[in-house]
Write a structure and sequence with these properties.
Number of helices: 9
Mean pLDDT: 84
Largest sheet: 2 strands, antiparallel
Low-confidence stretches: none
Structural class: mainly alpha
Oligomer: single chain
Length: 167
């Protein structure tokens, strides 16, 4: 509850304060607001709707920080998504979450086979699954992200930290 109140206060300060410049507001967003929102994101299984909600949240904050733009004919308009992305000059919130997931997956795979986190990660249920669409699984999303990045044999590459961090 207190975390939510603090987050709301920070968002309010960011949006109202005219004494802070853009760089200070972005720094507050990157160091306080985004880590608070993405706390524990290493273990999240993101659906498309979750990703969209996070994108909406991030764009809403960035639009509040940068404010509207005045056209030559004295009308105001909000900044486009591309302009916001260009001004941010850093990965968006979903890329941040996916990088955190990959970092956590590598950490788990480097642990011993007897550790609980490793056992749970590699565990597969032996029951019959319920009728309907299968639920998204964390490891499936990690492997899908790695496939998009064209990384093959990642389970052996994570053992060598330097090689893994180069990817």
């Amino acid at each position: 509850m207190w975390n939510e109140l603090i987050l709301l206060l920070l968002i309010l300060i960011l949006t109202i304060s005219m004494f802070l410049n853009y760089n200070s507001k972005i720094q507050i967003y990157k160091t306080i607001i985004r880590p608070t929102v993405t706390y524990g994101c290493e273990t999240w299984v993101l659906t498309t709707s979750d990703e969209n909600q996070l994108y909406i949240f991030e764009r809403k904050i960035l639009r509040k920080i940068y404010g509207p733009k005045q056209n030559p004919d004295e009308t105001w308009r909000i900044k486009t998504n591309d302009k916001l992305r260009h001004r941010m000059k850093q990965e968006d919130i979903i890329k941040f979450i996916k990088s955190q997931k990959l970092r956590w997956a590598a950490h788990v795979m480097r642990t011993e086979n007897t550790r609980t986190t490793r056992k749970i990660t590699e565990w597969t249920p032996h029951k019959t699954r319920p009728v309907g669409r299968p639920r998204l699984m964390w490891m499936g999303q990690v492997e899908e992200d790695l496939k998009r990045m064209k990384i093959v044999g990642w389970r052996t590459k994570v053992e060598d930290r330097q090689e893994w961090n180069r990817n």
